[in-house]
Each structure stands twice: as structure tokens, then as C-alpha cells.
Amino acid sequence: QVQLVESGGGLVQAGGSLRLSCAASGRTFSSYAMGWFRQAPGKEREIVAAINWSGGRTYYADSVKGRFTSSRDNAKNALSLQMNILKPEDTAVYYCAARKDTFYSGSYYRHAYEYDYWGQGLQVTVSS
To answer: Which residue of 2, 30, 69, 116 sits 20 to 30 Å from the alpha carbon of 104, by its own alpha carbon?
Structure first.
């Protein structure tokens, strides 16, 4: 089991940057594939980025590709999401999520139902 705690959200002007962090408990963080999702009011939760257990494979939604970068430090049980050139449409509650990759398949996962553990969520607001 893993517990996830996010930090780093807040209010930023359009064009600015924010860095979200997700701290994971436990000794087996490296055996989890991780993801970042977001949910805006009245909308479904959507994938932002996904990263495999080693950090060697990543996926980004088209809406954030080229602006957001996700990385992980398995030695520190840490996941991050660097968000640049933020737009008002990036405003949402952001979540980190974890899925056990028992056999170290190297896969990343793009769907919310594929994840077992979730952080509490962080508000990110981008003003125009």
C-alpha cells in the first residue's frame, strides 16, 4: 500500500509556472507506475501525464504536451509535475495516482480506473 501527499498548488497568472510534488510513503515506490490527473468543475477527471516505474517512459495529454514535464526520484519516493506556460484552461484540481506494477512491466497507464491509490488533490488556478 502507498499513501500519496501532493503539494505545490496555488494561483498563478497565465504564462506562469508551477511545480507540483507528490510524496509517497512506503519502501516500494519504485514498483508503482504513477500518473497525474486533473478535474475541472463540471468535467470528468482526465489524464495529464503518466510515468512508468523507472521514469523511462512517459505519456502526456495533447493539451499539455510541450508545456508539462513529469519526473520521479525513486530514491526519494517523489513524483513531480513541472507546469510551464500555464493557461486558464489548466485550472483544475490536480491529483497524483499510483498503480502497482508488480512485474515491472514498464507500462504507463492513462485511465483513472487503472490506478489504485490517489492523493487528496490540489487546486491549481490560472488567472487570465
So the answer is: 69
Please report, in tens digits, the pLDDT of each residue of the chain (128 residues total).
899 999 999 999 999 999 999 999 987 899 999 999 999 999 999 999 999 999 999 999 999 999 999 999 999 999 999 999 999 999 999 999 999 987 878 899 999 999 999 999 999 999 99
d(CA 75, CA 28): 10
Rounded distance, CA 29 to CA 35, Å? 13
**H or E element in which residue 2 lies:** none
**CB distance 70 to 49 below 8 Å:** yes
- The values of phi and psi at residue 25, to 5°, are -85, 170
Tell me the C-alpha distance between 106 and 64, whole Å. Answer: 22
Dist CA 46 CA 104 (whole Å): 25
**107: which DSSP letter?**
-
Locate 122 and state its grid cell.
Answer: 490540489
